[in-house]
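Dig into my protein:

:::
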Amino acid sequence: MSINSFDLSLFSFINQTLSNDFFDVVMPVIRNKNTWIPLYLLIAFLILKKNSKEFFLLGFFVLLAFVFSDSIICNSIKALVHRPRPCNELSMIPHMHLLLKNCSGGFSFPSAHACNHATLAFMFGHYFLNRVRGWAIFILFIFWALAIAFAQVYVGVHYPSDVITGFILGSFNGIFFYYLYTKANNYFYHKQKQSQ
């Protein structure tokens, strides 16, 4: 898959023009999956505290959505497209602001980071939106996923179109699996009420 001039220009703007000492420290941390383990634990605790039955059902659908996002959506498209990462393009490396010691292996399009985190953001965002009745938490989840997508471009491992496509695919994936979760939750809830 060829890179168009707009993609290259936007990549150059994010990766080079916006480069600064603060982002150089923060962006590699933001894109690191281990950074967000405390957030995942907090979300799990809040859901478990609220309703243990919902915790296991939602956990099942979140895991299913994540596997579908990472293994089926992203890996299958990457295998078809075969786009190299910018940090693996020898012609681009001299002009790049690289922040990672080792460029990730595999292909670039779409970004699995963007797809997976958008999936989680839309699932958790909708879950809390329907229970807290406030858009602030939902927007925070979306901003979180967007920040991770942006960081992927900033550190030089993805083109903007990689993360934009990944985010869009992840959004639809998250909405779809949250819908399946609500249907399953309603089914088990009504079944439980009928048995009482």
Notes: The mean pLDDT is 89. Helices lie at 5-17, 21-31, 37-50, 52-81, 112-132, 135-154, 160-195.
